[in-house]
């Protein structure tokens, strides 16, 4: 196995009286594609958000290349998500006022890229994911599947070291979902990009190198090949 890029140890996270994570630990190697699977409400998205530094666990630690995310400021973690991490949220979270090309290019513009370069890279990813035709469309003018692919393009445009994808094919039909997963996994393997893929779909999990099964905020069993 390659060197670990992410290590989570004893993660506990609660929302009020509901415990979403119960002492969960997982190690993810550089270049590995890991599917996090389990029923609705088992803690999959919470685990992803902890690993990506979006939320800080109540106890336990997440380390990125040995550095604890919990010791970083929110500004430092935000910068990490614009550079080394790419995040695809379950419901896309596109900026309503921006056309697709600007939504995709937003992380690049925030990182100091010139607009023409950001536009070029954005259009390339929209093309690769089969939604170049909506480049000038607002999110309200897109179908759910188009918006999801635009959001994935935004997560990929910075060429992140780690991609976090929460139900990346949830709004897509079977054929479109397969096409997106082929692009995602092929790119990951070519670039040694680590992928953390949250899914409840066994067909999606099958694209991963390994599957982590959760139930009630804990790992259900030994990690198994996907």
Automatic annotation (TrEMBL):
GO molecular function, one term: transmembrane transporter activity
A GO cellular component annotation in the UniProt record: plasma membrane
Keywords on record: ATP-binding, Nucleotide-binding, Transport
Pfam families: ABC_tran (PF00005)
Record flagged with keyword Transmembrane helix: no
ABC transporter domain sequence ranges: 6-224
InterPro entries: AAA+_ATPase (IPR003593), ABC_transporter-like_ATP-bd (IPR003439), ABC_transporter-like_CS (IPR017871), ABC_transpr_LolD-like (IPR015854), MacB-like_ATP-bd (IPR017911), P-loop_NTPase (IPR027417)
PANTHER family: ABC TRANSPORTER RELATED, IMPORT ATP-BINDING PROTEIN
Protein name listed in UniProt: ABC transporter ATP-binding protein
Source species: Rhizocola hellebori
């Amino acid at each position: 196995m390659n060197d670990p890029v992410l290590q989570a140890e004893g993660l506990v996270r609660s929302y009020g009286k509901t415990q979403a994570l119960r002492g969960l630990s997982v190690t993810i190697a550089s270049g590995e594609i890991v599917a996090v699977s389990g029923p609705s409400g088992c803690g999959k998205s919470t685990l992803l958000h902890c690993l990506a530094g979006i939320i800080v666990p109540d106890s336990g630690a997440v380390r990125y290349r040995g550095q604890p995310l919990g010791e970083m400021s929110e500004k430092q973690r935000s910068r990490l998500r614009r550079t080394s991490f790419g995040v695809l949220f379950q419901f896309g979270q596109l900026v309503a006022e921006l056309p697709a090309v600007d939504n995709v290019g937003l992380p690049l513009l925030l990182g100091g890229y010139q607009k023409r370069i950001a536009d070029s890279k954005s259009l390339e990813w929209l093309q690769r994911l089969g939604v170049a035709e909506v480049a000038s469309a607002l999110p309200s003018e897109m179908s759910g599947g188009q918006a999801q692919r635009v959001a994935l393009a935004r997560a990929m445009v910075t060429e992140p070291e780690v991609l976090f994808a929460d139900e990346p094919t949830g709004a897509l039909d079977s054929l479109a979902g397969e096409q997106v997963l082929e692009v995602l996994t092929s790119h990951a393997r070519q670039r040694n990009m680590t992928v953390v893929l949250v899914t409840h779909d066994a067909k999606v999990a099958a694209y991963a190198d390994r599957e982590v099964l959760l139930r009630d905020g804990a790992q259900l069993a030994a990690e198994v090949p996907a």
